[in-house]
Amino acid sequence: KRLVSAMGGSIQMESKLGAGTTFSFTLPFDYGSSDAEIEPSKRRTVKALKILVVDDNVINQRVVAGLLEKDGHTIIATGSAEAALEKLKEQSFDVVLMDMEMPNIDGPTATRMIRAMPEKEKAMIPVIAMTANVMKEDIMTCIQAGMNDYFSKPIDPENLRAMLVQVANKEGTFKIVNMPQKPLGNELLNTSALMSLKTGMRPDELDSLLKDLYEKTESLIAAAETAVAEKNYTALAGRGHDFTGMTSNFGFDILSRVAGEIYQQAKAQAAVQDLAGNIKKLRPTYEETRKAVTEWLAS
Q: What is the pTM (predicted TM-score) of this model?
């Protein structure tokens, strides 16, 4: 329904108990010249939007900016909810892309604060959640906080663009739908996720982004090793969260899964030896993944 609506169409359903259900839809198209070679995303070109990206991880900010600036959108990024709220007071935006988990003020809390702003136009701005965890409870948290929708990491560029079409067309409050989260694969490298970045960015942009990713990853591994030695569950949860979303955006499936387990274990304050076992997997898995990326880029 969301895709059909984004393209200006309508969808119908007919259902009869014991017989089955039929879904049909109509889409309006104009006659025009041949454009078979045009990318699908370009066929749904919308006006340029001013987008506020709120994420405490700079790598994630750059991934979103790299994908959307190519479409002509203006991206303003902040690393905290506090900074985002100040930006909203000072400037006007068309939409907010909000990370769910951040230190001090998380995404749902920040959204409630936006909805309580005195200026009606700013209080009603569309807020789309960005999350690496899409469970039923996460969806309910989004709804209860007043968020309009969400997209999961790794980012699906077409899914994100479809949401922005709705924002640009001012189609009103679009409802969260219970879309299944894409399961992480069993490969070191999910090349489809990496290909989305490769096709969405200039080669020098991707090279720079990977260099910064590797530096950030090595820093996070060292921080996680220190945190488990100190039995610091808060720090472990923070490092696990950073790691999960960041690596999933690049298709580092196994590394992202291990980081997700560390995050969940830290939140539940699991036994330190269990956490330590997963943290020992981080460095060798990272090194294998990095080698796989180098080989894929060279192929």
A: 0.74
